[in-house]
């Protein structure tokens, strides 16, 4: 893990770059409505998350972010490929001259497909996934902010993006309409969660 502090637009910003995009998380992929708790994670019985008396979930002693106006509907549950499947994906942002993000998965042999909806102004909360996610935006517009550079990037209906499994937040920037996308999660180990909420990132 690299932990560095650097100035940006006159403001000191702490950037944490994860050493691996294959970290295993504590919460499952769940459907959540505005203000709801992570009930599905509790039902699975597989979380390592401490829950304080006030109901706030924690990861490594810090309260994790929560979704608001964000719902996930599983269209096709966890399914393994009967064949060996590996994947190498590279992501180079159109507005960046930095090195590409490379995801090299020796085992990408599972698949989960979901429909994700954000209400007006809704947010996913800061989170990550154990493997890469291919996302097709079919309605509205989403603003994504990645922990690695804190740059807001917008994806509209008719566009797709690659989520390499790094910490990020996705927000519906429209105040009067929903945003909707289809997401295909690769390489989620059987019995492991697909989404992990993390403490909020200060950008």
Question: Can you put this structure into words, describing what you see?
Answer:
This protein is an all-beta fold and 203 residues long. The protein has one domain (2-197): Jelly Rolls (Sandwich), CATH 2.60.120.10. The protein is built from one helix and 17 strands. It has one helix at 39-44, and strands at 2-8, 11-17, 50-51, 57-59, 62-63, 68-80, 87-91, 101-105, 110-123, 127-128, 133-139, 141-146, 152-156, 160-163, 168-172, 179-186, 196-197. It has a five-stranded antiparallel beta sheet with strand order 6-9-16-11-14, with no helix packed on it. A three-stranded antiparallel beta sheet has the order 3-4-5, with no helix packed on it. The protein has a three-stranded antiparallel beta sheet with strand order 13-12-15, with no helix packed on it. Strand 4 (57-59) and strand 5 form a beta hairpin. The two termini are 18 Å apart. 33% of the residues are buried. The model is unreliable at 1-56 (pLDDT under 50).
Give the low-pLDDT segments. Answer: 1-56
Number of domains: 1
Instruction: State the shape.
Output: globular
CATH superfamily: Jelly Rolls
Estimated radius of gyration: 16 Å
Portion of residues in beta strands equals over 45%
Order of helices and strands: EEHEEEEEEEEEEEEEEE
CATH architecture: Sandwich
Output the CATH topology.
Answer: Jelly Rolls
Distance between the termini: 18 Å
Strand order of the largest sheet: 6-9-16-11-14
Classified by CATH, the class is Mainly Beta
Supply the number of helical segments: 1
